[in-house]
Amino acid sequence: MIKVDCAIVGGGPAGLQAALVLGRARISVALIDDNRPRNAVTHASHSYLTRDGIKPAEFRRIAYEEVLSYPTVTRYEWEAKEITRAENGFVLSGEDGSRVLARKVLVATGLKEILPDVEGLRDCYGKSLFNCPFCDGFELRGQPLAVFSEQPGAYHMVKMISHWSKDLVVCTNGSNSLSEEEKERLRKKNIMVMEQPVTSFVHQEGKLEAIAFADGAILPRSGGFVAPVLQPRADFQATLHYERNELGGIAADSWGNSGVPGLFAAGDAAYVMPSQLIFAAADGARAAMSVVKELIEEEME
Questions:
Q1: What is the CATH architecture assignment of 116-226?
Q2: 198-204 and 129-130 beta bridge pairing
Q3: How far apart are CA 12 and CA 281, in angstroms?
């Protein structure tokens, strides 16, 4: 069994930044990453200083090159299916029998997205349909856009996106995601609300051209934003018994402490929203510093 001071579960910006901080602190690290990043469908990542517009795969390549230059950091390409408590820390297990014994664990597994089951949506997602205006609003500025949301926060989403384009239509897909008061406010701002079910997103190689509705209506659009259901990608609550926050992530303080001795969380695994590279990386750095502090305090006892 591999023995390390800290196991990091997840190789996104939070996990990689944590590994960098820990590597520079000469902490032995097992970085467990199955190479299935949520932003793999995204053509470019934005709003990260010095890396604005970088392709996610290139971001990860550079990050791993930097992180793995530290001799105490080792990457393991498997999925942590189970984490259990042990006398000297935690045991992390993979389906292939891989096991790591770690004094501390930092969970940075991020989110998974559950998209509405509408024809063409997945083909357009990451190319002309997105979920974050701060990430992709600039590229869609001034275009005829759609906001597709079945979620209760639809009104807030529309208000935000209206800053990037005034040519907006809201599609609720037959859901009650908008109150009557909210719909009236949108109409006063000349934002059309289409409540009928959507049958398909018409596109050419992922570039949206129109939205087709069940009643036969066709709405020409060149892009838009979708509100997927976001859930923590990994769930270790049954064995680690941590508290959940209101969005389903691991409840942790601003320094990544979960309240479970030795267990830390960072990035989207902890706060869920806002889902931004720069937020996640900063969170990973803080959590890593907490790990170092705890390990040093234990050595001094």
A1: 3-Layer(bba) Sandwich (3.50)
A2: unpaired
A3: 8
Helix (H) or strand (E) holding 285: helix 277-300
Third-level CATH fold of 2-112+229-300: FAD/NAD(P)-binding domain (3.50.50)
Distant-in-sequence, close-in-space partners of 185: CB < 8 Å, separation ≥ 6:
155
Rounded to an integer, what distance in angstroms lies between the CA atom of residue 226 and that of residue 121? 9
Q: Identify the sign of the CA torsion 265, 271, 276, 279.
A: negative
CB 25, CB 123: distance < 8 Å: no
Task: Find the angle CA(214)-CA(112)-CA(122) to the nearest 5 degrees.
Answer: 35
CA–CA distance, 286 with 21 (Å, rounded to integer): 9
Within 10 angstroms of residue 200's Cβ, the number of other Cβ atoms is 14
What is the C-alpha separation between 106 and 250, in angstroms, rounded? 11
- Whether pTM > 0.85 for this model: the answer is yes
What count of other Cβ atoms lies within 10 Å of the Cβ of residue 128? Answer: 25
Instruction: Assess whether pLDDT exceeds 90 at residue 179.
Output: yes
Tokens of 224: 């838009």
The CA distance from 266 to 288, in Å, is 9
Q: Is pLDDT above 60 for 11? A: yes
Domain boundaries along the sequence of the chain: 2-112+229-300, 116-226
Query: Is the pLDDT assigned to residue 37 strictly greater than 90?
Result: no
**Tokens matching residue 73:** 């950091």
User: Helix 56-67 and helix 13-24: axis angle, to 10°?
Assistant: 20
